[in-house]
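Appendix B, Record 12. Input sequence as logged:
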Amino acid sequence: MFALSSKLRPSCLRDLSFKPFTLNSQASSYQANRQNRSFATTAASGNSIVFVDGVRTPFLQSGTDYKDMLSYELQKHAVLSLLRKLQLNAAEIDYLVVGTVIQEAKTANVAREVALTAGLPLSIPAHTCTQACISANQAITQAAAFINAGMIKTAIAGGVEFLSDVPIRVSRKMRKLLLDANKAKGVSQYLSLLARIRLNYLNLEVSLPAIAEFTTNETMGHSGDRLAASFRVSRKEQDEYAFRSHSHAEKAQKAGLLDDIAPITLSKKRIDKDNGIRVSNLEKMSKLKPAFVKPHGTVTAANASFLTDGASACLITTEAQAKKLGLKPKAYIRKAVFTAQDPADQLLLGPAYSTPKVLNEAKLSLGDIDVFEIHEAFAGQVLANLKALDCEWFCKEYLKRSEKVGQIPMEKVNAWGGSLSIGHPFGATGTRLLTMAANRLIKQDGRYGLIAACAAGGLGHGMIIERYPN
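Logged structural output:
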Protein backbone atom coordinates (compact mmCIF):
# COMPACT_ATOMS: atom_id res chain seq x y z
CA MET A 1 0.00 0.00 0.00
CA PHE A 2 1.22 3.51 -0.74
CA ALA A 3 2.43 5.49 2.25
CA LEU A 4 -0.15 8.13 1.40
CA SER A 5 -3.10 5.74 1.24
CA SER A 6 -3.95 5.58 4.93
CA LYS A 7 -4.30 9.35 5.13
CA LEU A 8 -6.58 9.95 2.16
CA ARG A 9 -9.69 11.91 2.99
CA PRO A 10 -13.15 10.86 1.72
CA SER A 11 -13.26 13.95 -0.51
CA CYS A 12 -10.43 12.44 -2.52
CA LEU A 13 -12.48 9.38 -3.33
CA ARG A 14 -15.24 10.77 -5.50
CA ASP A 15 -16.74 8.53 -8.15
CA LEU A 16 -15.92 9.31 -11.76
CA SER A 17 -18.80 9.29 -14.20
CA PHE A 18 -18.48 7.94 -17.72
CA LYS A 19 -20.96 9.70 -19.98
CA PRO A 20 -21.71 8.44 -23.49
CA PHE A 21 -19.52 10.06 -26.14
CA THR A 22 -20.82 11.40 -29.44
CA LEU A 23 -18.60 13.22 -31.89
CA ASN A 24 -21.10 15.88 -32.92
CA SER A 25 -22.25 16.84 -29.44
CA GLN A 26 -18.63 16.91 -28.29
CA ALA A 27 -17.70 19.63 -30.75
CA SER A 28 -20.80 21.70 -30.03
CA SER A 29 -20.22 21.52 -26.28
CA TYR A 30 -16.78 23.04 -26.71
CA GLN A 31 -18.26 25.90 -28.72
CA ALA A 32 -20.86 26.54 -26.04
CA ASN A 33 -18.32 26.47 -23.21
CA ARG A 34 -15.91 28.84 -24.91
CA GLN A 35 -18.53 31.62 -25.14
CA ASN A 36 -16.67 34.82 -26.09
CA ARG A 37 -13.21 33.81 -25.01
CA SER A 38 -10.53 35.62 -26.98
CA PHE A 39 -8.28 33.61 -29.26
CA ALA A 40 -5.62 36.31 -29.47
CA THR A 41 -2.19 34.65 -29.60
CA THR A 42 0.66 35.87 -27.45
CA ALA A 43 3.23 35.21 -30.19
CA ALA A 44 4.55 38.37 -31.78
CA SER A 45 8.24 37.90 -32.53
CA GLY A 46 7.86 35.03 -34.97
CA ASN A 47 10.33 33.01 -32.90
CA SER A 48 7.74 31.00 -30.97
CA ILE A 49 8.28 27.24 -31.12
CA VAL A 50 5.60 25.54 -33.19
CA PHE A 51 4.41 22.01 -33.80
CA VAL A 52 3.74 21.77 -37.52
CA ASP A 53 2.29 18.26 -37.81
CA GLY A 54 2.89 14.68 -36.77
CA VAL A 55 2.46 11.19 -38.18
CA ARG A 56 2.78 7.67 -36.88
CA THR A 57 2.75 4.16 -38.16
CA PRO A 58 -0.33 2.15 -37.25
CA PHE A 59 0.21 0.97 -33.68
CA LEU A 60 0.11 -2.83 -33.70
CA GLN A 61 0.14 -5.41 -30.96
CA SER A 62 3.62 -6.88 -30.69
CA GLY A 63 4.10 -10.16 -32.49
CA THR A 64 1.69 -9.31 -35.31
CA ASP A 65 2.35 -7.75 -38.72
CA TYR A 66 5.58 -5.93 -37.81
CA LYS A 67 7.26 -8.98 -36.30
CA ASP A 68 9.81 -9.44 -39.10
CA MET A 69 10.88 -5.78 -39.20
CA LEU A 70 13.52 -3.86 -37.26
CA SER A 71 12.96 -0.73 -35.18
CA TYR A 72 14.87 1.58 -37.50
CA GLU A 73 12.65 0.50 -40.41
CA LEU A 74 9.52 1.54 -38.54
CA GLN A 75 11.05 4.89 -37.59
CA LYS A 76 12.29 5.44 -41.13
CA HIS A 77 8.75 4.96 -42.41
CA ALA A 78 7.45 7.55 -39.95
CA VAL A 79 10.12 10.11 -40.89
CA LEU A 80 9.68 9.70 -44.65
CA SER A 81 5.88 9.77 -44.29
CA LEU A 82 6.13 13.06 -42.41
CA LEU A 83 8.29 14.61 -45.13
CA ARG A 84 5.86 13.41 -47.81
CA LYS A 85 2.83 14.71 -45.91
CA LEU A 86 4.39 18.15 -45.53
CA GLN A 87 5.93 18.07 -49.03
CA LEU A 88 9.16 19.13 -47.39
CA ASN A 89 12.66 18.67 -48.76
CA ALA A 90 14.83 16.73 -46.31
CA ALA A 91 17.58 19.33 -46.82
CA GLU A 92 15.47 21.74 -44.75
CA ILE A 93 15.87 19.53 -41.67
CA ASP A 94 18.69 20.51 -39.31
CA TYR A 95 18.40 17.73 -36.74
CA LEU A 96 16.75 14.39 -35.97
CA VAL A 97 16.08 13.17 -32.43
CA VAL A 98 14.33 9.89 -31.64
CA GLY A 99 13.15 8.45 -28.34
CA THR A 100 13.21 4.74 -27.59
CA VAL A 101 13.33 2.41 -24.58
CA ILE A 102 14.49 -1.05 -25.68
CA GLN A 103 17.56 -0.59 -27.84
CA GLU A 104 19.09 -3.08 -30.22
CA ALA A 105 22.84 -2.98 -29.63
CA LYS A 106 23.67 -2.92 -33.36
CA THR A 107 21.47 0.14 -33.91
CA ALA A 108 21.87 1.77 -30.50
CA ASN A 109 21.68 5.26 -32.01
CA VAL A 110 18.59 4.39 -33.99
CA ALA A 111 18.08 8.04 -34.97
CA ARG A 112 21.33 8.07 -36.94
CA GLU A 113 20.56 4.75 -38.60
CA VAL A 114 17.21 6.19 -39.67
CA ALA A 115 18.87 9.29 -41.09
CA LEU A 116 21.34 7.18 -43.06
CA THR A 117 18.89 4.63 -44.43
CA ALA A 118 16.12 7.14 -45.16
CA GLY A 119 18.39 9.03 -47.52
CA LEU A 120 18.51 12.21 -45.45
CA PRO A 121 21.51 14.46 -46.12
CA LEU A 122 24.61 13.02 -44.42
CA SER A 123 25.19 16.38 -42.74
CA ILE A 124 22.06 16.07 -40.54
CA PRO A 125 23.10 15.17 -36.98
CA ALA A 126 20.91 12.66 -35.13
CA HIS A 127 20.76 11.31 -31.63
CA THR A 128 18.62 8.90 -29.62
CA CYS A 129 17.26 9.63 -26.17
CA THR A 130 15.50 7.48 -23.60
CA GLN A 131 13.29 8.38 -20.66
CA ALA A 132 11.05 5.34 -20.35
CA CYS A 133 7.46 5.97 -21.49
CA ILE A 134 8.11 9.69 -22.04
CA SER A 135 11.03 9.19 -24.42
CA ALA A 136 9.27 10.85 -27.38
CA ASN A 137 8.15 13.67 -25.07
CA GLN A 138 11.81 14.18 -24.23
CA ALA A 139 12.77 14.05 -27.91
CA ILE A 140 10.24 16.79 -28.72
CA THR A 141 11.38 18.91 -25.79
CA GLN A 142 15.05 18.54 -26.72
CA ALA A 143 14.28 19.58 -30.29
CA ALA A 144 12.41 22.63 -29.02
CA ALA A 145 15.27 23.48 -26.64
CA PHE A 146 17.86 23.26 -29.45
CA ILE A 147 15.74 25.59 -31.56
CA ASN A 148 15.14 27.97 -28.66
CA ALA A 149 18.90 28.11 -28.03
CA GLY A 150 19.51 29.10 -31.64
CA MET A 151 21.46 25.95 -32.43
CA ILE A 152 19.09 24.81 -35.18
CA LYS A 153 15.95 26.03 -36.94
CA THR A 154 14.06 22.87 -37.84
CA ALA A 155 13.97 19.38 -36.32
CA ILE A 156 12.15 16.11 -36.68
CA ALA A 157 11.40 14.54 -33.31
CA GLY A 158 9.68 11.27 -32.60
CA GLY A 159 10.11 7.82 -31.19
CA VAL A 160 9.96 4.13 -31.86
CA GLU A 161 9.42 0.91 -29.96
CA PHE A 162 9.71 -2.58 -31.35
CA LEU A 163 8.77 -5.23 -28.82
CA SER A 164 8.30 -8.07 -31.31
CA ASP A 165 12.06 -8.59 -31.06
CA VAL A 166 14.04 -7.61 -27.96
CA PRO A 167 17.60 -8.38 -26.84
CA ILE A 168 17.88 -11.66 -24.92
CA ARG A 169 21.03 -12.12 -22.89
CA VAL A 170 22.58 -15.04 -21.09
CA SER A 171 23.12 -14.63 -17.35
CA ARG A 172 25.79 -12.25 -16.08
CA LYS A 173 27.94 -15.15 -14.84
CA MET A 174 27.82 -16.70 -18.29
CA ARG A 175 28.63 -13.38 -19.95
CA LYS A 176 31.70 -12.91 -17.75
CA LEU A 177 32.86 -16.42 -18.50
CA LEU A 178 32.41 -15.94 -22.26
CA LEU A 179 34.31 -12.64 -22.14
CA ASP A 180 37.15 -14.38 -20.31
CA ALA A 181 37.05 -17.19 -22.87
CA ASN A 182 37.40 -14.63 -25.63
CA LYS A 183 40.75 -13.63 -24.11
CA ALA A 184 41.89 -17.20 -23.40
CA LYS A 185 45.30 -18.22 -24.68
CA GLY A 186 45.58 -21.80 -25.73
CA VAL A 187 43.19 -24.73 -25.76
CA SER A 188 43.84 -25.77 -22.15
CA GLN A 189 42.94 -22.35 -20.75
CA TYR A 190 39.82 -22.25 -22.93
CA LEU A 191 38.70 -25.71 -21.77
CA SER A 192 39.36 -24.78 -18.14
CA LEU A 193 36.97 -21.84 -18.45
CA LEU A 194 34.27 -23.97 -20.11
CA ALA A 195 34.53 -26.49 -17.26
CA ARG A 196 33.32 -23.76 -14.88
CA ILE A 197 29.89 -23.57 -16.56
CA ARG A 198 27.01 -24.47 -14.25
CA LEU A 199 23.40 -25.13 -15.19
CA ASN A 200 22.16 -21.82 -13.72
CA TYR A 201 24.63 -19.97 -15.97
CA LEU A 202 22.31 -20.81 -18.85
CA ASN A 203 19.41 -18.72 -17.49
CA LEU A 204 18.28 -16.10 -20.00
CA GLU A 205 17.56 -12.42 -19.32
CA VAL A 206 14.81 -11.00 -21.54
CA SER A 207 15.10 -7.22 -21.84
CA LEU A 208 11.43 -6.31 -21.65
CA PRO A 209 10.77 -2.95 -19.98
CA ALA A 210 9.24 -2.54 -16.53
CA ILE A 211 9.39 -6.19 -15.57
CA ALA A 212 10.49 -4.58 -12.33
CA GLU A 213 11.79 -1.24 -11.17
CA PHE A 214 15.54 -1.58 -10.77
CA THR A 215 15.57 0.30 -7.45
CA THR A 216 12.51 -1.35 -5.89
CA ASN A 217 12.23 -4.66 -7.80
CA GLU A 218 8.49 -4.05 -8.08
CA THR A 219 6.64 -4.56 -11.37
CA MET A 220 4.72 -1.62 -12.77
CA GLY A 221 1.56 -3.72 -12.69
CA HIS A 222 1.91 -4.15 -8.93
CA SER A 223 2.47 -0.41 -8.60
CA GLY A 224 -0.67 0.20 -10.65
CA ASP A 225 -2.65 -2.08 -8.35
CA ARG A 226 -1.34 -0.31 -5.26
CA LEU A 227 -2.06 3.11 -6.70
CA ALA A 228 -5.65 2.14 -7.55
CA ALA A 229 -6.11 0.74 -4.05
CA SER A 230 -4.67 3.86 -2.44
CA PHE A 231 -7.16 6.10 -4.22
CA ARG A 232 -9.95 3.53 -3.93
CA VAL A 233 -10.41 3.17 -7.66
CA SER A 234 -12.64 0.13 -7.93
CA ARG A 235 -12.32 -2.69 -10.44
CA LYS A 236 -15.66 -1.55 -11.90
CA GLU A 237 -14.36 2.00 -12.43
CA GLN A 238 -11.24 0.68 -14.12
CA ASP A 239 -13.17 -1.60 -16.45
CA GLU A 240 -15.58 1.22 -17.29
CA TYR A 241 -12.68 3.52 -18.13
CA ALA A 242 -11.02 0.89 -20.32
CA PHE A 243 -14.34 0.30 -22.09
CA ARG A 244 -14.61 4.07 -22.58
CA SER A 245 -11.11 4.24 -24.10
CA HIS A 246 -11.81 1.49 -26.63
CA SER A 247 -15.26 2.87 -27.46
CA HIS A 248 -13.90 6.38 -28.05
CA ALA A 249 -11.03 5.06 -30.16
CA GLU A 250 -13.36 2.93 -32.29
CA LYS A 251 -15.70 5.88 -32.92
CA ALA A 252 -12.78 8.16 -33.75
CA GLN A 253 -11.31 5.52 -36.06
CA LYS A 254 -14.59 5.06 -37.93
CA ALA A 255 -15.05 8.82 -38.20
CA GLY A 256 -11.61 9.20 -39.80
CA LEU A 257 -10.25 11.27 -36.92
CA LEU A 258 -7.12 9.16 -36.45
CA ASP A 259 -5.66 10.65 -39.62
CA ASP A 260 -2.15 10.93 -38.22
CA ILE A 261 -1.63 7.31 -39.30
CA ALA A 262 0.77 6.79 -42.21
CA PRO A 263 -0.27 3.47 -43.81
CA ILE A 264 2.46 0.92 -44.45
CA THR A 265 2.53 -1.97 -46.93
CA LEU A 266 4.21 -5.23 -45.93
CA SER A 267 4.25 -8.29 -48.17
CA LYS A 268 1.58 -6.67 -50.35
CA LYS A 269 -0.65 -6.16 -47.29
CA ARG A 270 -1.70 -2.57 -46.65
CA ILE A 271 -1.86 -1.75 -42.94
CA ASP A 272 -3.72 1.45 -42.17
CA LYS A 273 -5.33 0.92 -38.76
CA ASP A 274 -4.33 0.30 -35.17
CA ASN A 275 -5.13 -3.32 -34.38
CA GLY A 276 -5.54 -3.13 -30.60
CA ILE A 277 -8.87 -1.30 -30.59
CA ARG A 278 -11.42 -3.85 -29.44
CA VAL A 279 -14.70 -2.93 -27.81
CA SER A 280 -15.66 -5.78 -25.50
CA ASN A 281 -18.43 -5.62 -22.93
CA LEU A 282 -18.27 -4.92 -19.23
CA GLU A 283 -19.61 -8.34 -18.28
CA LYS A 284 -16.77 -10.13 -20.07
CA MET A 285 -14.22 -7.68 -18.72
CA SER A 286 -15.41 -8.21 -15.15
CA LYS A 287 -14.71 -11.96 -15.40
CA LEU A 288 -11.00 -11.58 -16.19
CA LYS A 289 -8.61 -12.58 -13.43
CA PRO A 290 -6.14 -10.09 -11.91
CA ALA A 291 -2.89 -9.97 -13.83
CA PHE A 292 -0.51 -8.99 -11.03
CA VAL A 293 -1.84 -8.99 -7.48
CA LYS A 294 -3.63 -12.31 -7.11
CA PRO A 295 -6.34 -13.05 -6.26
CA HIS A 296 -7.63 -9.64 -5.14
CA GLY A 297 -5.91 -7.19 -7.50
CA THR A 298 -7.89 -5.00 -9.91
CA VAL A 299 -5.47 -4.59 -12.84
CA THR A 300 -6.30 -7.04 -15.64
CA ALA A 301 -5.37 -7.55 -19.27
CA ALA A 302 -8.49 -5.58 -20.21
CA ASN A 303 -7.77 -2.41 -18.23
CA ALA A 304 -4.00 -2.21 -18.86
CA SER A 305 -2.10 -1.11 -21.96
CA PHE A 306 -0.62 -3.86 -24.11
CA LEU A 307 2.83 -4.44 -25.65
CA THR A 308 2.87 -2.46 -28.89
CA ASP A 309 5.11 -1.90 -31.90
CA GLY A 310 5.08 1.50 -33.57
CA ALA A 311 6.90 4.70 -34.50
CA SER A 312 6.05 8.39 -34.69
CA ALA A 313 7.55 11.62 -36.00
CA CYS A 314 6.70 15.32 -35.96
CA LEU A 315 8.16 18.58 -37.22
CA ILE A 316 9.25 21.20 -34.69
CA THR A 317 10.44 24.63 -35.79
CA THR A 318 9.88 28.35 -35.24
CA GLU A 319 6.87 30.25 -36.45
CA ALA A 320 9.07 32.36 -38.72
CA GLN A 321 10.80 29.32 -40.22
CA ALA A 322 7.47 27.57 -40.80
CA LYS A 323 6.26 30.60 -42.77
CA LYS A 324 9.50 30.65 -44.73
CA LEU A 325 8.99 27.00 -45.67
CA GLY A 326 5.35 27.60 -46.59
CA LEU A 327 4.04 25.43 -43.75
CA LYS A 328 0.96 26.00 -41.61
CA PRO A 329 1.63 24.94 -38.00
CA LYS A 330 -1.06 23.27 -35.92
CA ALA A 331 -0.01 24.55 -32.50
CA TYR A 332 2.42 26.59 -30.47
CA ILE A 333 4.41 24.68 -27.84
CA ARG A 334 4.04 27.00 -24.87
CA LYS A 335 5.50 25.16 -21.90
CA ALA A 336 6.97 21.78 -21.03
CA VAL A 337 8.05 20.37 -17.68
CA PHE A 338 9.44 17.14 -16.27
CA THR A 339 8.88 15.89 -12.75
CA ALA A 340 10.19 13.06 -10.59
CA GLN A 341 8.85 11.26 -7.52
CA ASP A 342 9.94 8.34 -5.38
CA PRO A 343 9.22 5.22 -7.48
CA ALA A 344 8.82 3.18 -4.32
CA ASP A 345 5.86 5.29 -3.27
CA GLN A 346 4.40 7.22 -6.20
CA LEU A 347 5.66 5.58 -9.37
CA LEU A 348 2.69 6.40 -11.61
CA LEU A 349 1.64 9.80 -10.25
CA GLY A 350 3.56 11.81 -12.86
CA PRO A 351 0.45 13.58 -14.26
CA ALA A 352 -0.62 14.67 -10.76
CA TYR A 353 2.72 16.44 -10.32
CA SER A 354 3.34 17.69 -13.85
CA THR A 355 -0.15 19.07 -14.50
CA PRO A 356 -0.17 21.83 -11.84
CA LYS A 357 3.49 22.59 -12.50
CA VAL A 358 3.02 23.19 -16.22
CA LEU A 359 -0.20 25.13 -15.62
CA ASN A 360 1.65 27.37 -13.20
CA GLU A 361 4.50 27.87 -15.69
CA ALA A 362 1.98 28.86 -18.37
CA LYS A 363 -0.04 31.00 -15.95
CA LEU A 364 -3.19 29.02 -16.75
CA SER A 365 -5.81 27.15 -14.73
CA LEU A 366 -7.62 23.88 -15.38
CA GLY A 367 -10.58 25.86 -16.67
CA ASP A 368 -8.46 27.31 -19.47
CA ILE A 369 -7.70 23.88 -20.92
CA ASP A 370 -9.99 22.60 -23.67
CA VAL A 371 -8.26 19.31 -24.42
CA PHE A 372 -6.46 16.87 -22.13
CA GLU A 373 -4.34 14.02 -23.47
CA ILE A 374 -3.24 11.84 -20.56
CA HIS A 375 -1.16 8.73 -21.13
CA GLU A 376 -3.03 5.59 -20.15
CA ALA A 377 -0.62 3.02 -18.73
CA PHE A 378 -3.46 1.51 -16.70
CA ALA A 379 -7.05 2.60 -16.27
CA GLY A 380 -6.50 2.75 -12.52
CA GLN A 381 -3.46 4.98 -13.00
CA VAL A 382 -5.42 7.59 -14.99
CA LEU A 383 -8.30 7.61 -12.53
CA ALA A 384 -6.00 7.80 -9.51
CA ASN A 385 -4.22 10.83 -10.97
CA LEU A 386 -7.54 12.55 -11.66
CA LYS A 387 -8.63 11.90 -8.10
CA ALA A 388 -5.31 13.15 -6.74
CA LEU A 389 -5.69 16.47 -8.57
CA ASP A 390 -9.15 16.89 -7.07
CA CYS A 391 -8.05 15.93 -3.55
CA GLU A 392 -7.41 18.89 -1.27
CA TRP A 393 -5.42 16.83 1.23
CA PHE A 394 -3.15 15.29 -1.43
CA CYS A 395 -2.50 18.65 -3.08
CA LYS A 396 -1.62 20.29 0.25
CA GLU A 397 0.42 17.37 1.61
CA TYR A 398 2.30 16.32 -1.52
CA LEU A 399 2.09 19.18 -4.02
CA LYS A 400 2.51 21.80 -1.28
CA ARG A 401 -0.38 23.84 -2.61
CA SER A 402 -2.80 25.93 -0.60
CA GLU A 403 -5.76 24.29 -2.35
CA LYS A 404 -6.56 21.39 -4.66
CA VAL A 405 -5.88 21.68 -8.39
CA GLY A 406 -9.47 20.75 -9.20
CA GLN A 407 -11.66 18.36 -11.13
CA ILE A 408 -10.93 17.75 -14.79
CA PRO A 409 -14.14 17.27 -16.81
CA MET A 410 -14.10 13.73 -18.16
CA GLU A 411 -15.48 14.81 -21.53
CA LYS A 412 -12.22 16.70 -22.13
CA VAL A 413 -9.98 13.70 -21.37
CA ASN A 414 -8.76 11.41 -24.19
CA ALA A 415 -11.92 11.86 -26.23
CA TRP A 416 -10.50 9.90 -29.18
CA GLY A 417 -9.14 7.01 -27.14
CA GLY A 418 -5.77 6.54 -25.54
CA SER A 419 -2.91 4.15 -24.88
CA LEU A 420 -5.25 1.47 -23.48
CA SER A 421 -6.95 1.14 -26.86
CA ILE A 422 -4.75 2.72 -29.52
CA GLY A 423 -1.63 1.11 -28.10
CA HIS A 424 1.53 2.20 -26.33
CA PRO A 425 4.88 1.80 -28.11
CA PHE A 426 6.91 3.16 -25.20
CA GLY A 427 9.26 5.39 -27.17
CA ALA A 428 6.63 6.67 -29.60
CA THR A 429 3.58 7.56 -27.50
CA GLY A 430 4.62 11.13 -26.68
CA THR A 431 4.36 12.23 -30.32
CA ARG A 432 0.96 10.56 -30.60
CA LEU A 433 -0.24 12.49 -27.55
CA LEU A 434 0.97 15.81 -28.97
CA THR A 435 -0.45 15.20 -32.43
CA MET A 436 -3.81 14.06 -31.10
CA ALA A 437 -4.05 17.03 -28.74
CA ALA A 438 -3.39 19.46 -31.61
CA ASN A 439 -5.85 17.70 -33.91
CA ARG A 440 -8.53 17.73 -31.24
CA LEU A 441 -8.04 21.44 -30.63
CA ILE A 442 -8.60 22.12 -34.32
CA LYS A 443 -11.59 19.80 -34.62
CA GLN A 444 -13.23 21.03 -31.42
CA ASP A 445 -12.35 24.71 -31.83
CA GLY A 446 -10.37 24.80 -28.60
CA ARG A 447 -7.45 26.99 -27.65
CA TYR A 448 -5.27 25.23 -25.08
CA GLY A 449 -4.30 21.58 -24.77
CA LEU A 450 -2.51 19.85 -21.91
CA ILE A 451 -0.48 16.66 -22.31
CA ALA A 452 0.50 14.64 -19.24
CA ALA A 453 2.24 11.30 -18.81
CA CYS A 454 3.88 9.06 -16.25
CA ALA A 455 6.95 6.91 -16.79
CA ALA A 456 9.04 4.26 -15.08
CA GLY A 457 11.38 5.56 -12.41
CA GLY A 458 8.70 7.82 -10.95
CA LEU A 459 9.01 10.32 -13.82
CA GLY A 460 6.37 12.63 -15.23
CA HIS A 461 5.90 15.04 -18.12
CA GLY A 462 3.54 17.92 -18.77
CA MET A 463 3.15 20.16 -21.83
CA ILE A 464 0.89 23.05 -22.78
CA ILE A 465 0.12 23.73 -26.43
CA GLU A 466 -1.96 26.48 -27.99
CA ARG A 467 -3.84 26.07 -31.26
CA TYR A 468 -2.37 28.05 -34.11
CA PRO A 469 -4.83 30.70 -35.27
CA ASN A 470 -6.75 30.14 -38.50
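The mean pLDDT is 89.
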